[in-house]
Amino acid sequence: MTTSRTSLPVSATAVALGALLLAGTAAAKLPPPSDEAKAKAAETAAKTAWTDKVAAYQLCKAQDKVAAGYLAHAKAAGRPASAPVETPPCADPGPFAYVPPAEAKPPLEASGAHSPARTATQPPSSNRPDAVVNPAPAGKPASKP
What we know:
Blueprint: H1 10-26, H2 35-76, H3 130-133
């Protein structure tokens, strides 16, 4: 029994190409999240970080329990056991408490470097000729246009 490779008909290829082009437009830029969505995301991130701390605490407690059981079993069997390695105590993260950050106010500008421009009191140009405003240096003749 022989198998032959068949290619897609032209119409199926065109449909696949069209779907690919439409998928590109569907992935257009999304609008920025609202302040509520940002606050919810920050709270979710804090909750996730707290959950990770709880998991690390539970793992630390379980490791301490296994190490204590191993030492007790080794002593009961009369085998010499090495002294346990000193590790930092397990830190209980406590209950979850989220405090939303205060709204950040822009810093006061002491130098005024980023302050808005002052209101104009005169037009940016004048009627004085350029030769008066920018005289030629001494010893060089003024160029003629």
